[in-house]
Amino acid sequence: MGKKKSKTASTEYVVVRGEIKPGHGVASGKGKDERYPQGTLKQQFNHFLERGLDLSTYFLGTINVDISPCSYEIKKPKYFFKNIHWSDYIPPENFYFFDASLYYKQKTYKGLVYMPDPATKEDHIQKPTILELIFSKIEDLEYGNTVDIALKKDQLDIIAHEKI
After folding, report:
1. Neighbour count for residue 115 (Cβ, 10 Å)
2. What confidence tens digit (pLDDT) does each residue in 38-83 have?
3. Which residues, listed in sequence order, are joined to residue 72 by a DSSP beta bridge?
4. CA proximity to 156, closest of 14, 4, 8, 6
5. Nearest-angstrom CA–CA distance, 92 and 82
6. Hey, what CATH topology would domain 13-159 get?
7. What end-to-end distance do the CA atoms of the chain give, in Å?
8. DSSP characters over 138-161
């Protein structure tokens, strides 16, 4: 009797280098937006939890990484939440989340790319070369630092562009 060959799913990753940049400060509440004094992620937390995404092990703020001259292409997110009415100040939004690993100072951190859907986001718009990351607190990470981010290509692919 012959042996069955088991197929193992191989995941391909793409690694992109980027620079830590200041964001709007609304995700964490540091931006002093009076509509969201505790931050937007804290207000969104229970909406995500009800749908199966527990962010309790992460810092409720984002690390903004500029991957220019690259950009990204959404493939198949790990999570997609549609029509989330989390604020009385803006219309409902869609949210994407993707697996991510961040490499910094010879350490690897596991987390997520957090992406309010550009099609439904009305406020605090990001440049198309910025990835917003959610991780546990990473000591000594500062604006201007360079980091490498590994992403699953079947979730979020990186598109390389030539610098002009």
Report:
1. 23
2. 778 888 999 999 999 999 999 998 999 999 999 999 999 999 999 9
3. 158
4. 14
5. 8
6. Elongation Factor Tu (Ef-tu); domain 3 (2.40.30)
7. 61
8. -TT--TT-EEEEEEETTTEEEE--
Could you give the CA distance from residue 105 to residue 92 in angstroms, rounded to a whole number?
A: 38
For 131-162, the pLDDT digits (tens) are 999 999 998 999 999 999 999 999 998 998 76
* Model pLDDT, residue 122: 58
Give the burial string for 141-164 (b: 16+ CB within 10 Å, else e): eeeeeebebbbbeebbbbeeeeee
pLDDT beyond 70 at 125? no
Whose structure tokens read 């997520």?
Answer: 112
The model's pTM is 0.85
Taking CA 119 as the corner, what is the angle to CA 130 and CA 51, rounded to the nearest 5 degrees? 90
Spatial CB neighbours of 130, under 8 Å, sequence gap ≥ 6 = 21, 23, 64, 65, 66, 67
